[in-house]
């Protein structure tokens, strides 16, 4: 099983500042990683797939990068609506696995 | 617009069975794999099972293998998760999720649509 490790567990950022979320995998997954945003009481929402492709309609302030075992989700200018938990997900092999999540808080 | 509507989640006792359903609309149902992903209260996301568009291939998490069965009825645009021998650690909100890409050469990719979830509680 490929283990996904996200850091930090919680990130507190001021509006307008940059937020950088990390996801590390226990094996090389090329670019078979997706990122999701989940707000309280809601289902997850796809943000990024293929490590760097934005989902339809996603604002350009969200970007993904990385390959192999190190991946990053960057929110370039944090807005209050971005307060949520963010998960990475690998789909290179079964079983599919998710990271433990990073909670982004607005300062 | 893609819609996924889960149902069937209730309170059950350990050892009992339950069947969840997910009714889909807004896309060519048989072209896409679907998956179940669960989330225990206050915890992260855990993949449970996936089924390809035809229903011929399925994969399960080790934690549910042998107890859960994932099936689909393409004539009714619905998938089902039969859950047997339920345990307390199966308590979670169960989400139905759709692959972004049609299941041609493979499935179990990124999930571009999710249902609102149905809560399952296993407790005596």
Biggest interface, which chains? A-B, 22 and 22 residues
Mind summarizing the main beta sheet of chain B?
7 strands, mixed
List segments of chain A where confidence is low: pLDDT < 50 over at least 5 consecutive residues: none
> Helix/strand-derived class of chain A?
mainly beta
Give the N-to-C terminal Cα separation of chain B.
40 Å
Number of strands of chain A: 11
Percent strand of chain A equals over 45%
**What are the segments of chain B in which pLDDT stays under 50 over at least 5 consecutive residues?**
none
Count of helical stretches of chain B:
0
Mean pLDDT of chain B: 96
Supply the helix-strand structural class of chain B: mainly beta
Give the averaged pLDDT of chain A, no decimals: 97
The residue fraction in helices of chain B comes out at: under 10%
| Cα gyration radius of chain B (Å) | 14 Å
- Counted by DSSP, the helix tally of chain A is 0
Oligomer: heterodimer
Write the layout of secondary structure elements.
The complex is a heterodimer of chains A (107) and B (124).
Chain A: E1 4-7, E2 10-13, E3 19-25, E4 33-38, E5 45-49, E6 53-54, E7 62-67, E8 70-75, E9 84-90, E10 97-98, E11 102-106
Parallel strand pairs in A: 2-11
Antiparallel strand pairs in A: 1-3, 3-8, 4-5, 4-9, 5-6, 7-8, 9-10, 9-11
Chain B: E1 3-7, E2 11-12, E3 18-25, E4 34-39, E5 45-51, E6 58-60, E7 68-73, E8 78-83, E9 92-99, E10 111-114, E11 118-122
Parallel strand pairs in B: 2-11
Antiparallel strand pairs in B: 1-3, 3-8, 4-5, 4-9, 5-6, 7-8, 9-10, 9-11
Q: What is shown here, in short?
A:
The complex is a heterodimer of chains A (107) and B (124). Chain A has 107 residues and is mostly beta strands.
